[in-house]
Structure formats: structure tokens, C-alpha cells
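Task: sequence in, structure out. Protein: UDP-N-acetylglucosamine 2-epimerase (Hydrolyzing).
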Amino acid sequence: MRIGILTSSRADYGIYLPLLQKMKIDSFFEMEIIAFGTHLSKSHGFTLNDMEKDGYTCIHTISSMISNDDEQAIASSYGLTVLKFANFWESHPYDLVFCLGDRFEMSAAVQSGIPFGIKFAHIHGGETTLGAIDNVYRHQITLASKLHFTATDVFRKKVINLTDSVEDVFDVGSLSLNDIKSFVPIEKLIFFEKFNIPNEDFILVTFHPETMSVQENVKYAQAMKNALATISKEIFVIITMPNADTQGSVYREAIEKLKKKYPNRFLLIENFGKINYFSAMHYAKILLGNTSSGILEAASFGKYVVNAGDRQKGRIQSGNVLNCEFEERAIISVVDKAMKFEKYNGKNVYFKERVADNIIKIVKEFYESI
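Result:
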């Protein structure tokens, strides 16, 4: 079975990994990776190198990102991605192509495949993020897909409502948590030395723009900057840098100013990679930001998360998430509260057993029916 894997960022590649590792050694599949988006961006870590280091030999690359991140640049990148994938789909037939999540460039690649009759399998459909235009892109991808693998039954029902189809929608849980029970973090001293982290507690931070509130992002970035300056007086701060979203550079500039002003209190990471990121989550005191990993994954590490603003609003949350306004004093106050908590011992609503195995089983059954 010839399988294509659409991956446009470090984030979706990390989620895919348990599935890719199993398909790679399964003779039933002839797997090809289609890398585009920020994988090919030097300013975002050029994460194409990570896939090559992981031993994936058949990697197609499609470059379509424009360096600016204003509204016109995002729209232009979307259009350019559609055009380039039109050429790609014409000469690259697949039995099934995996797509994941809600990125604008992922949506563009999928929309371009519709006239060619490409059969897509969508992972993480049916979710809601009211503070990001990704909500629209996610549903576009869902409507263009033939198979659907959702992270909860609530999301499964939403996909069914969107597609009017029951047979091809499966609640399998979050793929990124597939190996979480067997995950062993990098030994602490080795990890700290590798990234030059001081031997003290740290907070793990990831902020992205609120793309439904474009005009507010300058204010939000300043609130983030001021709050982190105060927080860094009490605890070391590790920041993973924003994705290529509308006005992401506003946040990058604020973060870089913090690093310049307080060089010994901040560590900025462009691309951790999954093992390093999970190790950082394991050793972190708490998480702070507005990223999906705080919602989907942190509970499995026993970590409390301060989720600021509306970017993740609408996503189902486990009991470890503390929500607050995207405002300096609110962020500081809720971080102070979360820092006093012990380890989170509740369940993760996104966890299910054998996610990758179940996806593979369903895909093989799907192949037999076409």
C-alpha cells in the first residue's frame, strides 16, 4: 500500500512519529514523506534534517513559505502551496495520504488534492480552537478527507456531524501519547548539560499568536513579555519559539528582547525535537502558554498548565489546566498559584492504548475495501 505522509512542521512530525516508526518496518506499506512548510525554513530550525537523521529515505520536499508573517504573506503562502501541490499530486499517486491537525499550509496541500481524487486520512479532526483561524482550516481538511482519526469521542461526533458519515470516523486517542507509558526521559544531568540549563527548577513556555485577534497581538506579546520578566526573577524560563503564524514575529521579537535583557534567566529553543521536548516537560515545574501540547500531553507528565487567552478555547481539557486572561497580572497570578501545586495525578482525557497499532489496523481494512 503506497502511503504519503504530509508534514509541514516540527509539531506534526513529532505527533506522527509513533505511526511512522511502525509503518517504516511494516512490509505492507510503501511510505513516502512529503515535507513542506517550516521544515524547509532555516529561521524555524530547518527540521528536514531531523527526518533524514531518523532514517527516512524517501522524502519529497516542497518549498512554498514566504518569509513575512502578515495577513497578505500568509494568504500568498497558501496560494503558492496550492499551486506547487497541484504539480506534485499530478505525478505522485497514493493509495492514502495522511494529513494532521489544522495548519494553513496543511489545508492548502489538502485542498489542492481534491481535483485529483486524493484519498486523505485526517488525524486530530473535530477539535475546536476559537482563538485561532486554524479552526477553519481544520474543518476544511476534515471535509476533504476520507478517513478520520479523532482524539476523543466528542471530536468523533463532531466529525460525523461535519461529514454526514459514521463508517469512516474512529476515536483512537491522541497519537502523540502512543508511547507515553514507556517513555524514559533523558537523564537529568545529561539533559541539563546538553542545553546549558542551570541546576534549578524551570518553567516550560510556548506562546503563539491569537490569529483570530490579529489587532490584539501587539498587546498580548507585551503582556507575555512583562509577565515573563517578572516570572524569571523566581524561576528559570525555557521558551520554545512560536510557529509560522500570522504575526508570529511580534512574539519572537518580544522573546528575543527578554533574552537580551536577562541572558541568564532565559533559554530559547527553536526546535527541541520530540524526545528533548518530552524530557523538558518531564523536568519542568509547570507549563505556561497557549499551545496544544499543554492541553493534549502535559497531563500525562503530571504537570499543571497555565493556559493564557483564547487560542485553545473550545478544546476539551483535563483537570491539570488552569485558564487565565491574556494579561500580565493574570498570567503572573495564575502561575504563582500553579507553582504551589504538587504533581497532577488525574487522568488525561486524550490518552488511549495502542493508538498507532489501531490506526494501522483500520488503514489495512480500508485498503481491502477500495
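The chain has two domains: 2-178+354-368, 182-339.
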